[in-house]
Each structure stands twice: as C-alpha cells, then as structure tokens.
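*** Fold description ***
***
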Amino acid sequence: CSGSESHLINYAPFLNVLLVGISSVDCVQIFSLHGLVPQLAGVLMPICEVFGSCAPKVSWTLKTGEEISPHAVFSNAFTLLLKLWKFHQPPLEHVMGDVTPVGTQLTPEYLLLVRNSQLASPGSSLKDQSNSNRLSRLSNPSSTEPIFLDSFPKLTLWLRQHQACIASTLSGLGPGTPVYQIFDGLLNMMFKKINRGGQSLTPATSGSSNSSGGGTEDSSLRLKLPAWDILEAVPFVLDAALTACAHGRLSPRELATGLKDLADFLPASLATIVSYFSAEVTRGLWKPAFMNGTDWPSPAANLSMVEQQINQILAATGVDVPSLAAGASSPATLPLPLAALVSLTITYKLDRATDRFLNLIGPALNTLGAGCPWPCMPILSSLWAQKAKRWSDFLVFSASRTVFHHNSDAVVQLLRVCFTSTLGLNSSPISNNGGVGALLGHGFGSHFSGGISPVAPGILYLRVHRSVRNVMFMTEEILSLLMHSVKDIASHELPADKVEKLKKTKYGLRYGQVSLAAAMTRVKLAASLGASLVWITGGLSLVQSLIKEALPSWFISVHGWEPDVGGGSGGMIAMLGGYALAYFAVLSGTFAWGVDSASPASKRRPHVLRVHLEFMASALEGKISLGCNNATWRAYVSGFVSLMVACTPTWMREVDVEVMKSLSKGLRQWDEEELALALLGIGGVGAMGAAAELIIDSGPEVR
C-alpha cells in the first residue's frame, strides 16, 4: 500500500527513532564499509515516498514526550538518503577533468541498480557467496524483489525538479496554481514582520494574490500539506527571497532568519536550499555580498590567524599562499547565494539534534567554497571557526587545500615535493629519511606540541587531486617528475667525480655495485610513487591512456633531461631512467587491471597491451624513429618484458602471438636470447613453435 494507507504509517514512532539513530556520520560510514549503502537506500525510498505523501494531520507522541509528525519522519529519512547519494557534489563535479571522479556515480538510479544486482546474483566466488549470505540474513524475502525508481513517483518528480534547477534558472510561477498558493504561504510564514508592514517580496502580478494579504494563521493552515507538495514550491520561495535581498527589499539578517524558519518547519527543505544555492553559485549571476559585520557576518576577527595557519600547513610544499588581507579598499566578499547559505548554517546550535542536518549542508558548503575564487574558502573557515573552535583545525585545513584548486603550478610543485620527500632528496625536517612516513606524515593539528605543523605532501595531494581539471596534464607532469627524480637519485648515489676516482682503486667495482643497488632501490620507490599518483588521479582510464599514448609519445620525443652518455655517470642515468619507466608502466597496469583476470577492468587489458607491444616491436624493427636515449629505450624494453614474464604472465597469454614473435625477434637482435625465450615460453600453446625455432637457432648455449 502507498500514501496514507501504507502499513508503514503505524510504525512512525519506531521508524523515527531508528532513522535518527543511524543518521550520524559514523553510522553512514559503517554502512558504507559493509557495502550496504544500496540496501539502505532501497528501504529508505519507500519510507520517503509514504511519509512525504502524508499530510501532517496526525501526530505521535514518543515516550520522551516529543511529538512527531509525518514531516519529521520524512525529513529524517530524506536527509539520510541524500547523504548516501553524495548529494553535496556540485554540477561541475560531473564534468571535471577527463575521468569521472569516484562518488559521482551514486545517483538514486545507480544505487537501486547495485541493490538489485547484489540481491539477484548469488555470486561465483567464495567472497561473493559470503557477501550474498550476509545480505540475505539482513533482508527479509520480500526485499529481494527488484526495485526501480519508477515505483516512487513523488521522489522521481523531485529529482527531475532538482536536475532542472541545476540546468537552468527557474521559469515563472503562474498565480492561482496550487504551487503558487504554497509558495505564498511559505513566504508569509518565513517573513512575518515584513508581511505585517504591508511589503511584498514578489513583483505585483495582475490577478495574483499578494504575499502580504494572508496572515500567519492562514499560511499555517494552508501548509498542512504533504512534504512533497511543499518541496515543489521551495525553489520559487528561495528565488523570491534571494532576489528581494539583492534588491534591498529584504535585509541579510531577515533572509537568514526566514531560511532558518523554513528549515525548522520542514528540515527536508535543506536539500532544496543546498540544491538551489549551489546551482546559483555555479551560475555566477549574483552580485557579491560584503562580509562587513553590519549586513553580513564578518570574518575579520580571525582571518589573519587563518592565513598564518594556512602558511604553516603548506610550509613544506614551497607553495606561495595568496594574501588574505582585506582592507577598506578590498573588503571580504562572497557570492550572494553562498553568503546566504553560510549565514543559515551559523544560526544552528551545535548539538546532536542538529548534527544530522549540518552534516548535510556542511559538505556542500565546503565543496562550494573550494570551487569559488580565492579567498572564499578561508572566509568560510574564519566564520565557522568563530562559532566552533573545536573544528578550527579541520576548517583551516580545508581552506589550505583551495590554494591548489586555483593554481595548476601549485599542484605541480606539490607533486614535486611528494617525490623529493619520499626519496629523501631534500633537507626538509619532515622528510629527512624519506619513505612512506615522509610522504603521508603522522597527522597534524594544533593539539600537537608547537601548534599546527606542516602537513605531509601526500596527505595534501589526496585531498586536492579531485580538483584537477586537466587530468592528462597531470600524467605528463608525473612522468616528467619521475625522470627528473631518477637524475637526482643517480647524482646522489652515483656522483660522477667519485665514480671516476673509485674506478682506479682496488674496491672501485664493489663500490659501483653497492651504489647501483642503492640507486635501483630508490628508482623502484620513485616508480611506485609515480604509478600510485597516476592511479589516484585518474583511475583506469588514465592508466590506459598512459600506456597507450603518453609513454609512446615520450619515447618518440626528444627530452632535455637526458645526460650525455659519454660523460661521467650519464650512461648509468639513462639506464636507470629506462628501468624506472618499466616499473612505472607495469605497476600502473597492475593497479588498474590486477595481475590476473579476476577484475572486470582486466577485460580492457588485451587491447591496451597489444597497442603498446606493437609500438615496442615496431621500434625494435626500426619502423619508428625514437627521440630518447638508446640506453633508456633498451633498459625500458628489457625491464618491461622481464617484469611481465616474472610478475604478470597472464598478461602475455592475452597478447597476439605474432606480436610476441616480433618482440622476441627484436630482443634476439640485442643478444637477449634468454629473455626472448622466456617471453615465448609464457605465451601459451600458440607460441610453442616460435619458442622451438628460437632454441634451434640459438645453439646449445640456450638449451
């Protein structure tokens, strides 16, 4: 049954207590870790549909004495559903860069698709069967039926309105319609004092009822409606209120108070408030609001402290932080919709009752501030740090990340510091010894001795990489930084003057072996870091682009970093560079595809490998002219093939036999018979003939 006839109505008190109990951030995280977010979304949608369609003509009294209505149950279920959906992601998040960031696929349709798939598929592996058994224990038999979004017409209608609000500005609302009457009632409820003064927040329209005509009692009676009907009118209310504020008919304080009254009346309206203001900030059509402490709240009390702490956090990166100084000539400003949203949030008391609603607005506010021009995010952090000092560290850290959002050179500098810190190639106190500890650090915050300390570069990059617009640009930069790191490693471990001197001594050869081993250890570390950064930045698509396009392009091009092979340790540097690229490529592939065929992503592997190996074979045959150093190319080919033979033999079984034969032939020209034979040896039955021919042609030394 649906609507007021649903059996769920009788369970309203129980459902409300349960929904409030599982709405905390920690509980949502636990559901996520157990893979139960799609299941939870599937049971929240019917609750939202039923209670959102029920008028608040009935109420229930809890044992605590609190009285709840269908609006309360709906709001708690709806806000929890939005948290699972990653609702706070702005429109730009869906088109940022060349790869869709993780998390933006979590639309309601996607969640239901995953939920249906989980319950329909028994699972082929032991792990899948275990997950399926756990899901069946958590679900009753009736919940195993597939659910589709069309089953929830009210939710579907709201989603369409939400998407339309993001796509374009609101169209006119005709008077006399049911939505207009709700719109009129909401304005009367939100702005009582203005209505008593005879002012109107909406332009006069012939035949329309004036917003000041109805009294507060009339408006409250008119709003005894289902929550879905009220939500349909909320975008028009927000548009009218923001327009009135922009034209001086409504003060900022009255706007914030009215928004708070709306949110208190129907907490679920916070979803539409976030949706509307986010879209308007993205459009950039509103004049800025001056945060001067008179009209809007002022961040001046601790803005200088925020600037100082941002500089401390970024001290180890070498990135310049733009000044936050705001004087009479350049006062602090925010886009008007963002100023309205932050003013609304700071009207909330910080207690458990409001946490679930602030946790809905907070991520959206954080994302919007990060996407706006500098210094919007530091201003937001300053305003909130005045209200909640215990959140100061988190807020300042969020503000520090936005330095990288608006400056691609700062991101490159951060990547450079990631390499030097991990390899221990600089004198910074945070990274004298290098390694993962220097890359990721050991936390930060003012509770440490000495106050806020520099944040490790790896942690910073994990927080800012989603804001990179040109992901392909990052691939080229990571590749370039890897090769320069190899040169620095060689200069550190194999200095040319010492190599020449020790060649003439008794223990020169032993010294060279030890130094080369130490250099190779660091080269592998640099390659693993580079592969990790590529995988984190762009995932599967970026790794495949790296192997198909970026690496071949790099080998064809001429590079200024490569040393003269004839001088000093130049040949060693070129060889180390080739091995670094080999490790870099293979590790990137294993991150994306795995070493076997268990991952769904491995289905794309044969095509990418075939393209890359065909390039290698053509270059070995002389069909492609290379611009890189010959020692670099030879080290790359031998290293890449050796790693695949030893670590990923499954990869080679997916490659066309003719490509393997061509590659094997090129290796034989370099006198790499053993490696050529090993390559054919893992090629399966199709390569047996070529392997036998190689053994016969190579003579007894290979046999």
Observations:
- The CA atoms of residues 106 and 473 lie 27 Å apart.
- Strands lie at 60-61, 67-68, 288-290, 333-335.
- Residues 90-104, 204-217, 506-511, 564-568 have pLDDT under 50 and may be disordered.
